[in-house]
Design brief:
The complex is a heterodimer. By secondary structure, chain A is mainly α. Chain A has one domain: ABC transporter involved in vitamin B12 uptake, BtuC (Orthogonal Bundle). Chain A is built from 14 helices and no strands. In chain A, helix 4 runs parallel beside helix 11, helix 12 packs parallel to helix 14 and helix 13 crosses helix 14. The two termini of chain A are about 35 Å apart. In chain B, helix 4 crosses helix 5. Classes of the chains: A mainly alpha, B alpha/beta. At the A-B interface, helix 1, helix 9 and helix 10 of A face helix 2, strand 6, helix 3 and helix 4 of B.
Chain lengths: ~350, ~270
């Protein structure tokens, strides 16, 4: 009797898990459609069909547009969306706080400060100067936060408070740099803060993926530990999780992915906070599914935001950082209103 | 065998635990009782290596607790905390499956799933398996946490006040399940508990804690004499028998306690 009941439960549990895989397939289809739509849009006015037929007829014009304009843009949007969303989901897990995002830990503020410093010192938006500075300050920020938390027991609350304090420190330092810089530099700084997907070529994309892809794979291996950490530090430790080590390496991974996502493209807000929540509403909070689902959703959001940014006011391009919120907030609000369960 | 040897714990120059000695044999249910603030939770946390004792040591099956890795420790000791805040929704099945973490690969095996569903069935909560944990009643939540500790298959289970927020029926059920685990699987169980009647009914051994020390330890009958209870809690008690079972009835707070209360009031007023 016991065994029959038990096997019935297992069958139903497996069905419950395979339902999630169907959601993944749907999300992948949606992502593919978004990419096709993004390939279809561009200043040259070539549709995706014209693009491909041009390429099969060995037209350099079509091939150039495909390889050097549209595809790099989409690849950047994809990587940035994926990276920000996964680092958002990871921050929410290690800080056990639904309000957490890469911005809560002060990492984005740190990266921004580095970029601004790079703009002022390098006198140019192009080149690797800015991302290098952004990466260095983001990593420095995460070490600073970890240093703060080492003084006390590295609880989630200590990290959040330390992160928020560091965020204010970096914002005022950024303001100070803006205050002492010239008009042209201020203009470039403001532009960097808006976010842009057009500054990345293939070498830059290579560097971004080097910072985001391995980190994402690494974090996926923590899925169970992140699930368990949700039910309190003591409980997690007694199930065999090294809570402090997981939290500290989590902060490092978040800073690596955040720096990778925003160093070339500028601060693209909001995705890191909202994509994990939307994913959680759809697929639940098991991190084995939540992490990749957040990533896919982040990619879908940024790719579509990019399409909107280039079409709603064409031929003007509205900065991507502005459009992500316009696209994400209504979607988020809609899901928030119609949700039937409390999610946090 | 889970052994605590002359363990002391200091927090900010205050002795929270002093020279604690305690032994828990496999299959034994040990109740730790004592007034609020006596150090019961601190002792449990030291026994789980969540706190580092300032002196003394904890041995599990002949091995120093501090020398074990997190996973090795999890295979020996399981813990059921007093409450389990959950910020994000988790289903009951997933919650219990977490207890399999020391044995789990990324994809849970058939064996893991079977153990989880059998334990749920054994505890009579298999119908809740798809419910969200934070929407369950306190009694159901406690059973789920218990199930999670059971599937962890540790040699010892430590529980902090598992019955304090439960109704009568759930109190008996939870203690009965612990008794059953101790009897059938030979698991050593340590329970910090307030309810002295539950303690004497279900435990093999009671340890009375007072101001960071274990003042008395032994069989419930030997330890929980009316005099001892009166001294530890400052409450006069009487035992009555019914159907061969002894029940402890609190009468009133003793004079010593009343006087000190009056003094406090005087100080506050003055």
């Amino acid at each position: 009797m016991l065994q029959i009941a038990a096997s019935g439960t297992i069958v139903k549990y497996k069905a419950f898990v395979s339902k999630k895989i169907i959601i993944f397939i749907l999300a992948a289809v949606l992502l593919l459609i978004s990419i096709m739509m993004a390939l279809n849009t561009g200043a040259a006015g070539l549709s995706v069909v014209e693009l491909f037929s041009g390429m099969t007829m060995q037209s350099d014009y079509a091939a150039n547009i495909f390889w050097y304009l549209r595809l790099p843009r989409i690849a950047t949007a994809f990587l940035v969306g994926w990276g920000l969303a996964v680092s958002g989901a990871l921050s929410q897990a290690i800080l056990k706080n639904p309000l957490a995002s890469p911005y809560t830990l002060g990492l984005a503020a740190g990266a921004s400060f580095g970029a601004v410093l790079g703009i002022v010192l390098g006198k140019s938006v192009s080149g690797w100067f800015i991302p290098l500075f952004a990466l260095m300050t983001a990593m420095g920020t995460s070490l600073l936060i970890l240093g703060i938390s080492r003084f006390r027991h590295a609880s989630a609350e200590t990290l959040i408070l330390g992160g928020v304090a560091v965020m204010f420190l970096f914002s005022s330092m950024t303001s100070f740099v803006q205050y002492i810089s010239t008009m042209e530099e201020v203009h470039e700084i403001v532009f960097w803060f808006f976010g842009s997907l057009s500054k990345t070529g293939w070498p830059e994309i290579g560097l971004i993926s080097l910072m985001i892809v391995p980190a994402c794979g690494f974090v996926m291996g923590w899925a169970w530990d992140l699930n368990i950490m949700m039910s309190g530090d003591d409980a997690a430790a007694s199930i065999g999780i090294n809570v402090n080590r997981l939290r500290n390496s989590g902060v490092l991974m978040v800073s690596l992915m955040t720096a990778g996502a925003i160093c070339f493209t500028g601060t693209i807000g909001f995705i890191g906070l909202v994509a994990p929540h939307i994913a959680r509403m759809i697929i639940g909070s098991d991190h084995r599914f939540l992490l990749p689902a957040s990533g896919m959703l982040g990619a879908i959001l940024v790719v579509n935001a990019d399409i909107l940014s280039r079409t709603i006011w064409a031929p003007q391009v509205i900065p991507i950082g502005i459009v992500t919120a316009f696209l994400g907030v209504p979607l988020f609000m809609y899901l928030l209103m119609r949700r039937t369960r409390e999610f946090w | 065998m889970l052994t605590v040897e002359s363990l002391s714990f200091r927090y900010r120059k205050r002795d929270v635990l002093r020279e604690i000695d305690l032994q828990v044999r496999p299959g034994e249910l040990v109740a730790i009782a004592g007034p609020n603030g006596a150090g019961k939770t601190t002792l449990l946390r030291c026994m789980l290596n969540l706190l580092q004792p300032s002196k003394g040591r904890v041995m599990v099956n002949g091995r120093m607790l501090g020398s074990l890795s997190c996973m090795e420790r999890a295979c020996l000791l399981a813990y059921v905390p007093q409450d389990c805040p959950s910020k994000f929704p988790v289903t009951v099945f997933d919650m219990v499956l977490m207890g399999r973490r020391p044995y789990l690969s990324w994809r849970p095996s058939e064996e893991d799933l079977l153990k989880v569903s059998e334990t749920l069935a054994m505890m009579g909560i298999e119908h809740l398996y798809m419910q969200e944990f934070d929407r369950l009643s306190g009694g159901q939540q406690q059973k789920v946490l218990l199930a999670r500790a059971f599937v962890q298959e540790a040699r010892f289970i430590l529980l902090d006040e598992p019955t304090s927020s439960l109704d009568l029926r759930h109190q008996l059920e939870v203690m009965g399940l612990l008794r059953q685990m101790a009897g059938e699987k030979g698991v050593g169980v340590v329970v910090a508990i307030h309810d002295l009647n539950l303690a004497q009914r279900y435990s093999d051994k009671v340890a009375f804690m007072e101001k960071g020390c274990i003042s008395r330890a032994g069989s419930p009958e030997a330890v929980m004499t009316p005099e001892a209870v009166e001294r530890v809690y400052g409450v006069r008690v009487r035992y009555v028998s019914d159907n061969g079972r002894r029940y402890l009835i609190p009468l009133d707070a003793t004079e010593a306690n009343l006087i000190s209360n009056r003094d406090i009031r005087k100080v506050q007023e003055g």
